Inverse folding.
């Protein structure tokens, strides 16, 4: 053999490595897949939680914009928008709709379609959208108050017209709910579905449950909490049970005189 054709042991080892197969073995692939699955299981809940929090922040931003619109409206008119008038049920949305985009009236958190909620949530195509309600009636469930303690306007039994709540009628603007997360509405006509950006429904928020269907007047889609806008423009988040509690602390937040009025519960 020609000495020039001989290879050293180091060269033989290098050549054997180059000649060998490249890639992962089955065991190595399974290990990689297991690691990826583990990382995904750890990251997905974190991402979902971050997404929920981002939507809650967007909800607060929407309410802040509605608060600015409400302030501008009351400054100009001297009274709060009526909840319903002139045959149009969603008068408060129409009044503020000239100052904010249409999508501001709806919470950004999507709710999965359900036969239970089809008749009480804003229906848009194939998805149900959470919305904001107006403190129309205050904390009145029974009795006949001399005037409506909410913002929806007092109905005159003689003329049939509604008198709007004046800006000065709110005793403590920082302690009265104006608008908030709600799954409840009163349809303009029986059997009609609420329409996106067409305020023909009376969207309301109130501390009671609509009987006999059991629909609550306050939402709970922000990890059990609901965001509320107060008449002075600030927002507050609390549990649905707090907003709806039959206590003086909670019920006075719904009334213009900042009194609980248990005789109306």
């Amino acid at each position: 053999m020609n000495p020039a054709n001989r290879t050293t042991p180091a060269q033989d080892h290098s050549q054997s490595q180059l000649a060998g197969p490249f890639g992962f073995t089955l065991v190595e692939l399974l290990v990689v897949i297991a690691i990826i699955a583990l990382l995904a299981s750890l990251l997905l809940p974190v991402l979902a939680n971050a997404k929920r929090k981002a939507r809650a922040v967007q909800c607060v931003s929407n309410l802040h914009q509605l608060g600015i619109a409400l302030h501008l409206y009351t400054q100009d008119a001297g009274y709060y928008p009526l909840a319903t008038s002139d045959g149009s049920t969603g008068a408060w949305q129409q009044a503020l709709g000239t100052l904010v985009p249409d999508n501001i009236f709806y919470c950004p958190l999507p709710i999965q379609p359900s036969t239970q909620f089809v008749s009480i949530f804003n229906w848009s195509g194939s998805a149900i959208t959470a919305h904001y309600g107006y403190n129309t009636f205050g904390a009145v469930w029974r009795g006949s108050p001399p005037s409506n303690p909410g913002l929806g306007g007092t109905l005159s039994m003689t003329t049939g017209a509604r008198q709007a709540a004046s800006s000065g009628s709110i005793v403590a603007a920082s302690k009265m709910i104006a608008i908030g997360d709600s799954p409840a509405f009163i349809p303009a006509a029986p059997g009609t579905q609420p329409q996106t950006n067409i305020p023909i429904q009376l969207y309301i928020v109130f501390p009671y449950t609509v009987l006999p269907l059991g629909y609550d007047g306050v939402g709970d889609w922000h990890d059990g909490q609901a965001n509320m806008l107060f008449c002075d423009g600030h927002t507050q988040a609390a549990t649905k049970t707090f907003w709806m509690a039959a206590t003086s602390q909670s019920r006075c937040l719904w009334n213009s005189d900042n009194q609980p009025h248990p005789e109306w519960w």
